[in-house]
C-alpha cells in the first residue's frame, strides 16, 4: 500500500516543471462568471403638489410579498446571482502538470496579480487527516504545510497561502516564485550544477530539512523534482509534502516517496528511520545534481560509487559521505 501511494504522490513535483517566467494565465478558477440582475423597478408617484398615489391592490401586495421572500432565499430565486466563493479570488491559468495526486495550474491572485500555483488533490482511499489545534481536522498534507509555515517561517520551504476543501478533493493555493524551475528540469536544460552552485543548493536544502525537523515534519520525498530554483537568484524552495508524515523516533513500516531515493534498509527489512533516510536521499540528490544521473543502477543493489573525472576530490568525498552517513550511523548504533 505504501508503494502505491508513493507512485501517485511522488509525481507531484512534475507539476512545477513549467513554472518558468513569462507564463500567461487566463480563465477564472471555477469559471464562476455570472451577470447581476437589478431588482424590479418599484412604482413611483410623481412629486407634484396635492397628488396622492393610489393604494396598491391586494394582488399587487401579494406579488411583492412573494418576490421579497424569493429575494431572501437565493436557492429559490432565479434572478439573484450565486454567492462567490473565496476561490474566485484567484484566476486559473494553464496546467503545469498532473499525476496520481491530481493536477496543478498556474494562477494569479486577482487583487494584486501575485503569481500562485493552484493544486487540486483528489481524496482517495488512503486519504489521511490530522488534528491541528484551533483548526480541527485537516488533510495531512495541509496540516504538515501549516506546521512548517508557522512563524518564524523558513525561506527555503514553499509557502501555503490558503486552502479550500470539497467533498471529493481539496485545493491548495501555493506561492509560485517567478521566474523558477524545478531543479531536475533546470539541470536538463543547463547541464549539471557546478560545484559552487551545488554548495549553495545543498546549504539551503539542509536549512529547509532542519526547519522541517524542528516542526516535527518528515518530508520523505527529497529529490531534485521537489526543489524549486529561482533562476534569477539561485534561491531554493522545498515543495510537495504529499508523501510526508509526522516525525517520530521509532521506525516507519510503510514507504512513501520515490524508490530510487529510498534507503537500503527499506529493501532489506521494509523499515527505516526518518533521520538516516533523509540523509540518504540528500546524498542521492546531491549526486544527481552534480553527475546528471542516479548513483546506482538499481536502488535495491547498492554498489561502489563512481564519479565523473571532472568532479574534484573534495566534492567526491562530500557526496560519498552524504550517501554513506546512513550506513555509518546504523553501524555505530548496532
From TrEMBL:
Gene3D superfamilies documented for this protein: Phosphorylase Kinase, domain 1, Transferase(Phosphotransferase) domain 1
Question: Which family is this protein grouped under?
Answer: Belongs to the protein kinase superfamily. CAMK Ser/Thr protein kinase family. PIM subfamily.
Region ranges (Disordered): 57-91
Residues binding ATP: 119
From the Swiss-Prot or TrEMBL record, give the protein name: non-specific serine/threonine protein kinase
* Keyword set, alphabetical order: ATP-binding, Kinase, Nucleotide-binding, Serine/threonine-protein kinase, Transferase
What are its E.C. numbers? 2.7.11.1
Q: What domain of life does the UniProt record list for this protein's source?
A: Eukaryota
Tell me what reaction this enzyme catalyses: L-threonyl-[protein] + ATP = O-phospho-L-threonyl-[protein] + ADP + H(+); L-seryl-[protein] + ATP = O-phospho-L-seryl-[protein] + ADP + H(+)
Q: Where is the composition biased (Basic and acidic residues)?
A: 80-90
Sequence ranges assigned to domain Protein kinase in this UniProt record: 90-334
**What sort of enzyme, by top EC class, is this?**
transferase
Amino acid at each position: 500500500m505504501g508503494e502505491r501511494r508513493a507512485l501517485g504522490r511522488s509525481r507531484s513535483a512534475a507539476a512545477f516543471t513549467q513554472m518558468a517566467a513569462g507564463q500567461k494565465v487566463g480563465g477564472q478558477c471555477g469559471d464562476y462568471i455570472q451577470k447581476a440582475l437589478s431588482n424590479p423597478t418599484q412604482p413611483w408617484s410623481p412629486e407634484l403638489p396635492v397628488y396622492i398615489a393610489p393604494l396598491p391592490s391586494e394582488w399587487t401586495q401579494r406579488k411583492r410579498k412573494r418576490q421579497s421572500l424569493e429575494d431572501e432565499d437565493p436557492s429559490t430565486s432565479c434572478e439573484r446571482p450565486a454567492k462567490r466563493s473565496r476561490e474566485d479570488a484567484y484566476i486559473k491559468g494553464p496546467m503545469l502538470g498532473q499525476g496520481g495526486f491530481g493536477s496543478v495550474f498556474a494562477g494569479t491572485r486577482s487583487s494584486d496579480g501575485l503569481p500562485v500555483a493552484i493544486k487540486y488533490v483528489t481524496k482517495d482511499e488512503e486519504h489521511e487527516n490530522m488534528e491541528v489545534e484551533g483548526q480541527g481536522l485537516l488533510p495531512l498534507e495541509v496540516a504538515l504545510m501549516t506546521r512548517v509555515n508557522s512563524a518564524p517561517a523558513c525561506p527555503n520551504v514553499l509557502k501555503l497561502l490558503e486552502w479550500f476543501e470539497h467533498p471529493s478533493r481539496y485545493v491548495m493555493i501555493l506561492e509560485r516564485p517567478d521566474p523558477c524551475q524545478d531543479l531536475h528540469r533546470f539541470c536538463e536544460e543547463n547541464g549539471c550544477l557546478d560545484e559552487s552552485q551545488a554548495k549553495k543548493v545543498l546549504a539551503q536544502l539542509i536549512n529547509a530539512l532542519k526547519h522541517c525537523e524542528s516542526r516535527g515534519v518528515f518530508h520523505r520525498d527529497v529529490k531534485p523534482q521537489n526543489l524549486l530554483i529561482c533562476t534569477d537568484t539561485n534561491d531554493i524552495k522545498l515543495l510537495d509534502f504529499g508523501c510526508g508524515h509526522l516525525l517520530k523516533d521509532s521506525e516507519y513500516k510503510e514507504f512513501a516517496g520515490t524508490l530510487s531515493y529510498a534507503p537500503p534498509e527499506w529493501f532489506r527489512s521494509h523499515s527505516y528511520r526518518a533521520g538516516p533516510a533523509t540523509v540518504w536521499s540528500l546524498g542521492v540528490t546531491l549526486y544527481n545534481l552534480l553527475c546528471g544521473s542516479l548513483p546506482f543502477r538499481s536502488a535495491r543493489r547498492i554498489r561502489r560509487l563512481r564519479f565523473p573525472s571532472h568532479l574534484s576530490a573534495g566534492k567526491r568525498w562530500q557526496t560519498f559521505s552524504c550517501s554513506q552517513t546512513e550506513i555509518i550511523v546504523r553501524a555505530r548504533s548496532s
